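Sequence in, structure out. Go.
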Amino acid sequence: QVQLVESGGGLVQAGGSLRLSCAASGSILSINSMGWYRQAPGKQRDLVADITAGGSTNYAGSVKGRFTISRDNAKNTVYLQMNSLKPEDTAVYYCKADVVRIGGYRLISDNYWGQGTQVTVSS
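Output:
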């Protein structure tokens, strides 16, 4: 019904930049919040940044001033611009979207996740 497709991950040296993209498609009426999460080996999945439909943003303290989240509502796409990357940013990055769709006679809100994209920052 709903798919999230991520792109932009890869290998970069410390101090470099990457731009992640996540496009949602399928039976979508609207999307509330969209966000990026990351999970390093042996650790839990944590919020990196999220953004509401109106453009309000939240960032993890460890990425403030370095990462910027944005979205294009017409394209159902969320972006994460990552600058000044550090080795501790190395993780699998996951896109999440709170999608509103019509389910018969009801509006239904569900969270959908992307497949994850690897970001590796070398020292």
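Check: The CA atoms of residues 3 and 40 lie 23 Å apart. The mean pLDDT is 97.
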